[in-house]
Amino acid sequence: MPDLDLLVKNVRVVRPDHSEPERLDIGVVDGRFTRIASDIPADQADVVIHGGNRLAFPGVVDVHQHWGIYNPLEEDARSESRAAAQGGVTSGITYFRTGAYYLNRSGPYEEVFPDVLSAAEGNAYIDYGFHVAPILAQHIDEIPLLIERFGVPSFKIFMFYGTHGLHGRSSAQESFLMIPPEQSYDYAHFEFVMRGVQAARERFPDLADDISLSLHCETAEIMRAYTRIVEEEGTLTGLEAYSASRPPHSEGLAVTIAAYLAHETGLPNINLLHLSSRKAMEAAMLMARTFPHVNFRREVTIGHLLADVNTASGLGAKVNPPIRPREDVEALWEHLLAGDVSWVTSDHACCREETKFGEPKDDVFLAKSGFGGTEYLLPGLVTEGSRRGLTYQQMAQVLAWNPAQRYGLHDKGTIAEGYDADLCLVDPDHTWTVHAEDSESTQEYTPFEGFELTARVTDTFVRGHRVLEDGKVVGEPQGRYLKRPTGRR
């Protein structure tokens, strides 16, 4: 009898701890890699797939998504996880908070989070988890509950929400965040969140390395002032205007504040999300040198690496922080190639046309923020990274291993015996043009429309289950909720 459930033959295996791909076969039993070797006989497997000398990448771990922000969570879990599989993504962690958007409700997470899990269950084609934002004061007290009962060890602060709207205009935080009038979402709240996360690390010392706090670093006061300036002057339009209204030094200042609060509260595990500019990266590197006892991680998105204010396709590219001018894109690549970027994500937030654009449609300040892009994550990085000298090993590190280890997914992130059999096959010599209509996402447009990519994900496997075959999603949803931390350390 065959002793393997699945055998993938004749592939060049890319791993985060190997400098070059190796021509090997991959054997899978019960959803885990069990044999990685040369010339495994085909008769030893129930199912044999011939890789045709394609690259076998570890399944991408996309740790910055927003399922359910603009559409019902159960719908996004199904459609956007299909798009994720197109991008080689096998595990996704999506953000959730109370307040407007998402479930459009407030209250304790003990009551809200079971409904979040229920909405996603049975709908996802990839494995998935959640980060949670403590919005109410009582949410800070619930951090141990979220860790112990629900397996959520990662938390988030949106630094600009206190006095600035999600889409660029000021808004009343009480209505947007659904917080009572006696509470506020400000630097003091951020401090108390940090103290709460650190208290949880001390309460659960065995889990401490897997408990972290992520921050969206923009400064509301700076953005509010510059939005007024940009609108009153009226000389800039579109993505260029939006970038100027949320200037890079707003990011740099917020990074600095976040870093000092981490120092003050003794919280060492800090993730600086979607850094979009030279000034943001410079501030992040300066803070790492200033506070060496803080274990900073630095995230960049594929959108900020591929597009600039002139090349992105229309106002659909509005996002927070904004798509930047070309000089900032080049700065991000300099830092990525230097090893300063910890991981690359999508910040995927499906926003359909009827929701995205205001009236008039060409007013960037009336458009909603966020767009999808998980389906271009691996193809985009392989395409542009290969042009710039980023190695396949580095790609595996920033797309799979590094995020998996930081966020407690210890069964994910590499192709090695004993790990979850998450992988994707990539043709690195397949040139194609991005068209939104080819995506499994329900978003009808993409900022990458017309971009030429030179790598294509052909097949994606989640724990040995094939969910993408020859570029098409197949089968039924196989995704499982990832109660973290998981697996080995």
Describe this structure in words.
With 489 residues, the chain is an alpha/beta fold. It has a single domain (60-412, 428-454), classed as Metal-dependent hydrolases (TIM Barrel). The chain contains 15 helices and 19 strands. Helix 9 (248-265) packs parallel to helix 10 (278-290). The model has no long low-confidence stretch (mean pLDDT 96).
What is the alpha-carbon Rg in Å? Answer: 21 Å
Average pLDDT value?
96
CATH architecture term: Alpha-Beta Barrel
Output the number of helix runs: 15
CATH topology: TIM Barrel
The counted number of beta strands is 19
Distance between the termini: 33 Å
Tell me the name of the CATH class.
Answer: Alpha Beta
Low-confidence stretches: none
The proportion of residues forming helix, as a percent range, comes to 25-40%
Quickly describe the structure.
With 489 residues, the chain is α/β, with parallel strands linked by helices. It is built from 15 helices and 19 strands.
Any key phrases for this structure?
single chain; 489 residues; alpha/beta; TIM Barrel; 5-stranded parallel sheet; 15 helices; 33% helix; 21% strand; globular
Present the secondary structure layout:
Blueprint: E1 4-13, E2 22-29, E3 32-37, E4 45-50, E5 55-58, E6 60-65, H1 73-86, E7 89-96, H2 109-120, E8 127-132, H3 137-141, H4 143-148, E9 154-158, H5 173-176, H6 187-203, E10 212-216, H7 220-233, H8 238-245, H9 248-265, E11 269-272, H10 278-290, E12 295-301, H11 302-306, H12 326-337, E13 343-345, H13 353-356, H14 377-388, H15 392-406, E14 423-427, E15 432-433, E16 452-453, E17 456-462, E18 465-469, E19 472-473
Parallel strand pairs: 1-4, 1-5, 6-7, 7-8, 9-10, 10-11, 11-12, 12-13
Antiparallel strand pairs: 1-2, 2-3, 5-14, 14-17, 15-16, 17-18, 18-19
